[in-house]
């Protein structure tokens, strides 16, 4: 399953991974360039997700790009701002010529309830039901939105759990407002989200 969407200056896509890693590799052109990574990991699932991202980028960009990584850990493609994310059975990516972008995909897992107080303060929890909320879907939306926003900051390791805050949550428009205090710019982002039965996808652009 492949979904491609265009929004403002961005193009993003979602790939439902039904292929094996060997099937994905067979559909790509730069197979030799991918061998060092593939040989460095033994888990078939990780190989599959990694290759699905490359396959999705090929569809989004119209060619198979070289992906490099900055020391801070974020990906770079010549001429594009890109971001991607993957989890079991899914890969997501977003690209823009003009603006920094971020995307994240998370599966719904009950264990996020136990992490609630680590990544949301009382004001944030009040937006989604209060300090004792056990709404796995809304908690996961907030976690994922913070991940997508943090990717747009292009920082290395940092306390993003507290340095990136949810200041508005609108389930009707499927959008959150996220404010960060980790950079001198103190950006405020609009983060869109899409819900499925087993995952949430969040994405946004800077500026």
Automatic annotation (TrEMBL):
Domain 4'-phosphopantetheinyl transferase: 101-201
One Gene Ontology molecular-function label: magnesium ion binding
Keywords, in A-Z order: Transferase
Pfam families according to UniProt: ACPS
Name of this protein: 4'-phosphopantetheinyl transferase domain-containing protein
Organism annotation: Tannerella sp. oral taxon BU063 isolate Cell 1/3
Organism phylogeny: Bacteria, Pseudomonadati, Bacteroidota, Bacteroidia, Bacteroidales
């Amino acid at each position: 399953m492949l979904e491609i969407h265009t929004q403002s200056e961005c193009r993003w896509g979602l790939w439902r991974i039904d292929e094996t890693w060997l099937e994905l590799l067979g559909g790509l052109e730069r197979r030799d360039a991918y061998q060092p990574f593939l040989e460095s990991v033994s888990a078939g699932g990780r190989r599959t997700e990694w290759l699905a991202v490359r396959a999705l980028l090929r569809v989004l960009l119209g060619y198979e790009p070289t992906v490099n990584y900055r020391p801070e850990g974020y990906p770079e493609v010549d001429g594009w701002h890109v971001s991607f994310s993957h989890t079991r059975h899914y890969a997501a990516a977003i690209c823009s010529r003009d603006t920094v972008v971020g995307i994240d995909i998370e599966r719904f897992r009950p264990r996020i309830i136990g992490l609630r107080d680590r990544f949301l303060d009382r004001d944030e929890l009040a937006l989604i039901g209060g300090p004792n909320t056990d709404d796995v879907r809304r908690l996961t939306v907030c976690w994922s939105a913070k991940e997508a926003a943090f990717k747009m900051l292009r920082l290395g390791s940092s306390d993003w759990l507290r340095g990136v805050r949810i200041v508005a949550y609108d389930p009707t428009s499927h959008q959150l407002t996220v404010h960060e205090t980790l950079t001198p710019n103190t950006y405020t982002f609009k983060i869109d989200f899409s819900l499925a039965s087993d995952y949430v996808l969040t994405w946004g652009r800077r500026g």
